[in-house]
Write a structure and sequence with these properties.
Layout: H1 6-15, E1 19-23, H2 27-40, E2 44-49, H3 50-56, H4 59-73, E3 79-86, H5 89-98, E4 102-105, H6 112-127, E5 132-137, E6 141-142, H7 156-166, E7 170-173, E8 178-179, H8 190-200, E9 204-206, H9 214-222, E10 225-230, H10 232-248, H11 255-260, H12 263-277
Parallel strand pairs: 1-2, 1-10, 2-3, 3-4, 4-5, 5-7, 6-8, 9-10
Length: 283
């Protein structure tokens, strides 16, 4: 059974830990993540971008893969199926209709008023169906962007207005993180993060968790971050293991062996994050 993310993040906030959000890309990745989280008794949010959903066949296919694996593997931990960076209300509503239990409406590129309007459309539809909603304020860039530009950072007043006028369940304020691999050092504004947390008192989300130093991650959790998104690090770890396997096993052509060659590395990487976030034994 999959659940929405609100209760698990509220529990994380009161317990001073963060729930891992691992992006999934196919059946194997979904299985690996579920198995390691079950082993460590960690709640988990399975994140699916619009692109990943399309690659996997569609929202309903993703839903069926996740729920099927939960049943067949005997998974007992809380699992949320989350649309990551839904770029429109249409995408969010489609994911909800397919069975997703949590969605992110990312209207951060719009004006504050338009962001609020788009977010409200999703919140109204989602909450009526028991689905949690995440929104973004500011600009969480790609690795090519400069996180030092203050334009990228969420402003407190804007965050307050977005939360108060929409009733979202958790907020991703842009505070210096980027998606992908960092060029240079990650500069996360923990001071502003703590201020936003103190004023809003709802779970905060940190995107672009790959490449951020462990001490900064720990500081972010202390500042109210209850959900941390990890994607690139698992991809890089898995790809390195598979590449090494193929280089040493040129005769192998079975896709199960090729994809499976990255299982141990991916699970180890996920385990390290779970232990860092202190979500183990919180299920």
């Amino acid at each position: 059974m999959i659940v929405n993310a609100k209760q698990m993040l509220d529990d994380a906030k009161s317990g001073a830990y963060a729930v891992p959000h691992f992006n999934i890309n196919n059946l194997e990745w979904t299985r690996y993540v579920l198995e390691i989280c079950e082993e460590l008794r960690s709640p988990v949010i399975l994140g699916v971008s619009e692109g990943a959903a399309k690659y996997m066949g569609g929202y309903k296919t993703v839903y069926n893969i996740v729920t099927g694996l939960i049943e067949d593997l005997g998974i007992t931990i809380p699992v949320a199926l989350h649309l990551d960076h839904g770029k429109s209300s249409v995408a969010c509503l489609a994911a909800i209709d397919a069975g997703f239990t949590s969605v992110m409406i990312d209207s951060s590129a719009l004006s504050l008023l338009d962001n609020i309007a788009a977010t409200n459309t999703v919140v109204e539809y989602a909450h009526a169906r028991g689905v949690s909603v995440e929104a973004e304020m500011g600009h969480i860039g790609g690795a090519e962007d400069s996180a030092e530009d203050d334009i990228a950072y969420a402003k407190l007043d804007d965050c307050v207005e977005l939360v108060n006028k929409t009733g979202i369940d958790f907020l991703a304020p842009a505070l210096g993180s980027v998606h992908g691999l960092y060029k240079g050092e990650a500069k996360i504004d923990l001071v502003r993060m703590k201020l936003i947390n103190d004023v809003l008192n709802i779970p905060l989300v940190l995107h672009g968790g790959t490449g951020i130093p462990d001490e900064t991650i720990k500081g972010a959790i202390e500042c109210g971050v209850c959900k941390i998104n990890i994607n690139t690090e698992l991809q890089v770890t898995w790809a390195a293991a598979v590449r090494s396997f193929l280089n040493n096993n040129l005769e192998v052509y079975d896709p199960r062996k090729i994809i499976g060659a990255g299982e141990f590395a991916l699970k180890q990487s996920a385990k390290e994050k779970i232990m860092l976030f202190k979500s183990n034994n919180k299920a």
